[in-house]
Amino acid sequence: MELGWDTTAVHAGREDLAALGVHAIPLDMSTTAPLASVGSGGEAYELMATGGVPAPGQTTVYQRLWNPTVARFESGVSALEGAPEAVSFATGMAALAAVLLAAVADGKPHVVAVRPLYGGSDHVLATGLLGTQVTFVRPGGVRAALRPDTGLVIAETPANPDLRLLDIKALVAEADGVPVVIDNTFATPVLQRPLEIGASLVLHSATKFLGGHGDAMGGVVATDPGWAARLRQIRAITGGLLTPWPAYLLHRGLATLPVRVRAQQENAHKVAAALQSHEAVTRVLYPGLPECDPLGLVGTQMSGPGSLMSFEVDTADQAEAIPAHVSLMTHAVSLGGVDTLIQHPAGLTHRPVAAEAKPHATMLRVSIGLENPEDILADLVQAIEAVC
Ligand SMILES: *Cc1c(COP(=O)(O)O)cnc(C)c1O
After folding, report:
1. Is the CB of 349 under 6 A from ligand 1?
2. How many whole angstroms from 21 Cα to the centroid of ligand 1?
3. Mean pLDDT, range 265-282, rounded to an integer
4. How far is 45 from 199, CA to CA, in rounded Å?
5. Which of 64, 232, 235, 260 is catalytic?
6. Residues of the chain with CATH 3.90.1150.10
7. How far is the CA of 213 from the centre of ligand 1 (A)?
8. Catalytic annotation present for 208
9. 91: Cβ below 6 Å to ligand 1?
10. Which of 55, 90, 157, 377 is most buried as measured by Cβ atoms within 10 A of its Cβ?
11. How high is the pLDDT of residue 1?
């Protein structure tokens, strides 16, 4: 039976629970596992250190190699992204680092990155710390930037922080066979599934919407078996693994992901529409507004515009002052949780980004939560009016 997508969100990764005689996800905290013999243990070690997964009943040796609680979360994510496999990491940045290391190890260290990107992703690429060489481009500039040693094309849509949308199919065509990585953190698989339209890897900061409650960090990459094995090998060797307790929380978050994303989106729509008519707001950036979606991607590539928005006011001083005046929402970085957060990208999340690509200092980004939209709007408006 082909299950509905919301059903999958509730049940994926829980297939073995009934056989275990439990109903909720079990939390297995073991750092090590009993070995029957040196030979069988060594064989399992070898398998997992080279990117394999243990067979049922085979020893898992050591938590850095494999853990059942973590594997259940991965299996939930792969089902939601329509991917054969998913590999999780300690954070979104650890996931990106593993993807970059895989390209470098394959002798293809050149990365074409479509700006804007999350500030941390821009930073790791700009520093070249992991042995990559980057060419930053704007949408449409990918093909001209490709080199024989280009191993990856990286993009976000909606992008952080200006919510710019990008046509993934067009990007994949431009990439001309080079694997495309889409950071799907803002859209989540509820609204957009890039692997179904040609991307090779989908990356998430699971810290954001997947967990959804602001209390667990993680990263995850959904992809094909070849990439997955390579990423597991890198994880086993370098140790940037997701541990069981956050994996448990993130997996629990998947069950409510569709409901949260749709409800937050509904709130965001109302807040964006109302902000647009406020005289102190010079621009609202939200994919649900027709002028922010010139390619008509909402309703085609994305089933909805999501719950992140940015807006601009007249001066940078005003933008920096507004977050100090909010009372219901929290002035904090991060996004995608059940409560509303506001932050100044140029000063915080995108601080390390080079001047030519830095977001406008007049811009604030808001992650809309599950509060009543009237309350979110009232808080935002009183903070704006306290300053402007
Ligand atoms: C937060 C974020 C990341 C980094 O994830 P961490 O879990 O903080 O390491 C990457 N991409 C996007 C779009 C993000 O918002």
Report:
1. no
2. 36
3. 97
4. 32
5. 64
6. 255-387
7. 15
8. yes
9. yes
10. 157
11. 65
pLDDT per position as a tens digit, 109-165: 999 999 999 999 999 999 999 999 999 999 999 999 999 999 999 999 999 999 999
User: In which order are the strands placed within the sheet that holds 180-183?
Assistant: 85-89, 219-223, 201-205, 180-183, 150-156, 110-114, 133-137
Q: Specify the pTM.
A: 0.97
- pLDDT the model gives residue 3: 87
Residue to probe by mutation, ligand 1, list 88, 89, 93, 188, most atoms within 8 Å of CB? 93
Beta strands per DSSP E along 60-171: 85-89, 110-114, 133-137, 150-156
Which three-class secondary structure state does DSSP give residue 183?
A: strand
Radius of gyration of the chain (CA): 21
* 118 noted as active-site residue: yes
Mutation choice for ligand 1 from 118, 192, 220, 334, CB with most ligand atoms inside 8 A: 118
CA of 89 to the centre of ligand 1 (A): 12
Calpha distance 22→19 (Å, rounded): 8
CATH architecture of 67-251: 3-Layer(aba) Sandwich (3.40)
Closest C-alpha among 66, 60, 72, 61 to residue 27: 72
Q: Which two tokens stand for residue 53?
A: 């997964």
Q: What tokens appear for 229 in the block?
A: 């094995």
The residue length of the chain stands at 388
| CATH 3.40.640.10, the chain: domain bounds | 67-251
Checking if the pLDDT of 35 tops 70, the result is yes
255-387 CATH: 3.90.1150.10
Quote the percentage of the chain above a pLDDT of 90: 97
> 184 in ligand 1 pocket by Cβ < 6 Å?
no
2 pLDDT band, cuts 50/70/90, is confident
